[in-house]
Amino acid sequence: MTLSVPRVRHYLKNCELEKLFIEELGWDRYSTNLDVQIDGKTYPLRAFAEKRGVQIFICQSHGDDKIPNYATRRKIDKHVAKSAYEHVIIFVDSNKKTQIWQWVARQPGQPAAYREHSYDSQHHSGDALIQKLNAITIPLDQEEALDLTGTVPKLRDAFDRDRVTKKFYDQFKREHAAFLKFITGITEQGDKDWYASLMLNRLMFVYFIQKKGFLAGDTNYLRNRLEAVQQRKGKGKFHTFYRYFLLTLFHEGSAKQPKDRKLDADLVQLLGDVPYLNGGLFEVHQLEETYPKIDVPDDAFNNLFAFFDQYEWTLDTRPLRNDKEINPDVLGYIFEKYINQKEMGAYYTKEDITEYISKNTILPHLFDAAEKKCAIAFQPNSALWRLLRDDPDRYIYPAVRQGVIDEHGEVIPESALPEFVQTGMHDPKARMFHKQYNLGSASIPDKTGNNLALPTETWREYIARRQRCLELRKKLTGGAIQQINDLISYNLNIRQFAEDVIAGCEGPELLRAFFQAISSVTVLDPTCGSGAFLFAALNILKPLYEACLERMQAFVEDLDRSSERHSSKKFEDFRKVLAEVERHPNRAYFILKSIIVNNLYGVGIMEEAVEICKLRLFLKLVAQVDKVKHLEPLPDVDFNIRAGNTLVGFVSLAEIRRAAEQETSGQGRLLFGETDKAIRRIEEDAEIVERAFQKFHEMQTEHGMDAQDLRFGP
Description:
Blueprint: H1 5-13, H2 17-24, E1 28-38, E2 41-51, E3 54-60, H3 70-83, E4 87-92, E5 98-105, E6 113-120, H4 127-134, H5 161-182, H6 189-210, H7 221-233, H8 241-254, H9 265-271, H10 286-290, H11 298-308, E7 312-313, E8 325-326, H12 329-338, H13 341-344, H14 351-373, H15 383-390, H16 398-401, H17 419-426, H18 428-432, H19 435-439, H20 459-477, H21 484-489, H22 494-503, H23 508-520, E9 523-525, H24 532-561, H25 572-582, H26 587-599, E10 600-604, H27 607-622, E11 641-643, H28 653-661, H29 673-701
Parallel strand pairs: 3-4, 7-8, 9-10, 10-11
Antiparallel strand pairs: 1-2, 2-3, 4-5, 5-6
Helix pairs in contact: 1-2, 5-11, 5-12, 6-27, 12-27, 14-23, 14-24, 22-24, 23-24, 24-25, 24-26, 26-27, 28-29
């Protein structure tokens, strides 16, 4: 079912929201009224559409009333959630000219996040909102695919990624070995292995972006160009596909601006409309400089493309839907599995481990940094800590609450449990030798007969979890938790809390403090491998950036809608940030680019691992763009992600000088002649590198500047 954009635009412009959802989006009619009391004022809401438990509400202002401000809208949402957990609220002004769409974004592994979209019928085309509406259109042929919670069951029924990637990896390993045998012109076996990996990385990147139509609009670009070269030049004659076309695509097409490419007419036509990607991935590699006569025959690519063509290459971050889909996450898995783990000391750390370590180190640091800038907001019993007291269940993980607290926030009574469990809960002697209590599977059926206990959980384990859950709830409601580290100690949902604190900032000072902390934090993985921990850090920071930008926009829009007299410089810093966002393809691209350039740093001992890490970061950015015309040159992260050994050498100039000035015993040593000159030379070189980095960083973050201008050498 395709949306009729003219009709949707007409319905939005005329505020005919019921027709929009019922007639165009395929939702069901629904009618209920809900009055919400906030700070002594009543806000009437009316639900007019529904689909499998998801309700659409309208909250319209009347007379001289204005649309409620951001803080009030959040409070309204929390009240509505008690009656309709999954919902959308559309706030409309009295003239039906301005709409604010509010919803809660829930993604697996991410904290629930408040999101808003403003639409002004007099000034906005509605294209951005229409794009969002297209995602919630319900065709008739999908009606039966919706489950009772109103979500398509694509997440829980998704194919297991480990099984899919293992299948791909097993065949990839064979193709890698076969491709390696075709390479000529490299004498060292280690370098040949490295170059095979480099070529496969480049080709996999191209496969991902060609499926988006970014290479001359051809989703089978490489296969078709291979056939075109063979038709024109003859298979394996004169120059191979590798030397005639691929090196041109990499070194001229993707690595240079169109105006700087040096191509004959035949190659220009063959190459087609290829975007400048930058990023360093396609520049002349050091191996290609060392071995200028490298060649790979056409048969190698015939075999490799036949393998790649068996799969569906997608840049989506959603779980894989079938065993033929491949996404960028597979690349890290392939690399970590491909190398010899015992010999190289490599270990692939699973996402649950990297996420746990990252959130419990990064988030406390951000809170500490923000507290230094805005200490008053962190005082005991402030609005920040009252979040925990006012809605304790939100910060207790669902797995802890399950079977203890029901969907209405009520504690499941002890009387609902078997009698022997009730007895054993309070009598140690009774439970000590009770086999069913200690070893029997817990069973707590809900109204539909589903077991609310966790899988494989015994009654003893359930009771321990129940007691822990209720103890946590008591501490939260009693205001006993007033430090960020307490959320780690008690294993509370620190990511949700951080998201809510930022989204609910009552004053701009706290928001500024958090944004400065988030945008300036540096996360270093000294053994980054293919980027498992760096991607965990990225996933921690991304929703925090989003929350900051959402709150900035709300401050600005609330001010613009108000009749308050104010200085033209009020929220000037927020407006500047939001203007910078607008200069990028979309907000998600700006956020990811900011994180990659400003926040993430990694060192890996293996060159191949570092290249995979960069490749995955580039693909993460490319995935945010739908049209090739919106694709920016990728940032160069050579300063951020580097190959090296962090166990050897010094970490600062002070350490170098201290090592030169002191004996191993600690006794001082005078510097003479060559030693002193060497120290001075190191200090001068370090100063040059520091200035170069600052300039390089400026180029990466300032839109329109090309870091190629700073490259040294030929």
